[in-house]
Design goal:
The protein is of the alpha+beta class and 342 residues long. The chain is built from seven helices and 18 strands. The chain is globular, with a radius of gyration of 20 Å. Bound molecules: pyridoxal-5'-phosphate (PLP) and 2-OXO-4-methylpentanoic acid.
């Protein structure tokens, strides 16, 4: 079969339904066998747990076509494991990690004509999602769930692709100390929607959230972790002392790339907003964001401008970006176990 006819280089980060999805249901204490289906619709009772008490978690990963025409995914085992942690925190049943990996393989293989061509700038975004379908009225976990994986081809998350963006320090909080900020639950995103709509209306691409406890430390944005570069070319990665930052797979991979492949000095530590002006480059990192450079932060009217400027990625972030995407698309040798061929 041939690739679908899409204007691959000009798609945005929007939902384009593909032909197949994977669905498994949990009932009577166990998951069914699961299957690939063409049915994109979910039918729920009005009393489903997801609708009332937001019992839902999800993942995001991508499939890539490599230079030599293979289709691969990047570290899907870490998505399987993070979803297990999210489910446990939300009192949901765990979808076995080896079944998660097999389901990703099956759904990507079924949708292989939707994997954007190498070099197009687009990728196939894979969205595993699990939610409570069972009925609840008192506040308690449901006893029935659906696990589903669908795919959609996507382009760059931020308009303008690799152009530096401007972000603002948010007046809102994303995650409470020791709350749910460290899991990938839809509820964390519901509470960020007003903040992102407001930020967009004000002309900013994203919000930088501070720690909710002291409003002193940098945490992350609504959809990505943050990295900084020091004057002497080292990497600084904000770490939360209240465990409220999502453990980004991209960020963990960047730390390994920086330390083991590029030989950079890496510090993972709490980062105060007041010290950000000392850094020379900033980037947002995530599956959707890849590494998106930030040119400026607006802190209530005060601008923090990075030396890398508003025209292009700074040199260290560019090196990290090229190495990471090179690994993902097969032009740079990957550390053991990072790349899964479909
Ligand atoms: N932080 C938030 C809030 C996110 O939504 C995401 C996206 O998944 C990330 C960070 C980046 O995580 P990952 O690199 O695993 O995609
Ligand atoms: C991802 O990067 O996979 C996410 O889930 C982030 C979201 C903003 C699309």
């Amino acid at each position: 079969m041939a690739k679908k006819e899409l204007d691959w280089s000009n798609i945005g980060f929007t939902y384009i339904p593909t032909d197949y999805r994977y669905v498994s249901n949990f009932k009577d204490g166990k998951w069914d066998d699961g299957e690939i289906t063409t049915d994109s619709k979910v039918v729920l009772s009005e009393d489903s747990g997801v609708l009332h008490y937001a019992q839902e978690c999800f993942e995001g990963l991508k499939a890539y076509e490599t230079k030599d025409g293979k289709i691969v995914t990047f570290r899907p085992d870490l998505n399987a494991s993070r979803m297990k942690d999210s489910a446990a925190r939300l009192e949901m049943p765990q979808f076995p990690e080896e079944r998660f990996l097999k389901a990703v393989e099956e759904v990507v293989a079924a949708n292989k004509d939707w994997v954007p061509p190498y070099g197009s700038g687009a990728t196939l975004y894979i969205r595993p999602v699990m939610f409570a379908t069972g009925n609840v009225i008192g506040v308690k976990p449901a006893d029935e769930y659906q696990f589903r994986i669908f795919c959609t081809p996507v382009g760059p998350y931020f308009k303008g692709g690799a152009k530096p963006i401007v972000v603002k320090i948010s007046d809102f909080d994303r995650a409470a100390p020791h709350g749910t900020g460290n899991i990938k639950a839809g509820l964390n995103y519901a509470m960020s929607l007003h903040a992102i709509v407001t930020a967009h209306e004000e002309g900013f691409a994203e919000n930088v959230y501070l720690d909710a406890e002291s409003r002193t430390y940098i945490e992350e944005t609504g959809g990505a972790n943050i990295i900084f570069v020091t004057k002497d070319g080292g990497l600084v990665v904000p770490k939360s002392h209240t465990d409220s930052i999502l453990p980004s797979i991209t960020r963990r991979s960047i730390v390994t790339v920086a330390r083991d492949i590029l030989g950079l000095n890496v510090e993972e530590r709490p980062v105060k907003l007041s010290e950000v002006e000392n850094f020379t480059e900033m980037g947002l990192c995530g599956t959707a964001a890849v590494i998106s450079p930030v040119g400026k932060i607006n802190d209530h009217g005060k601008e923090i401008c990075f030396a890398s400027g508003m025209d292009e990625m700074g040199p260290v972030i560019k090196k990290l970006y090229d190495t990471l995407t090179g690994i993902q698309m097969g032009s740079v040798e990957a550390p053991e176990g990072w790349i899964h061929e479909i």
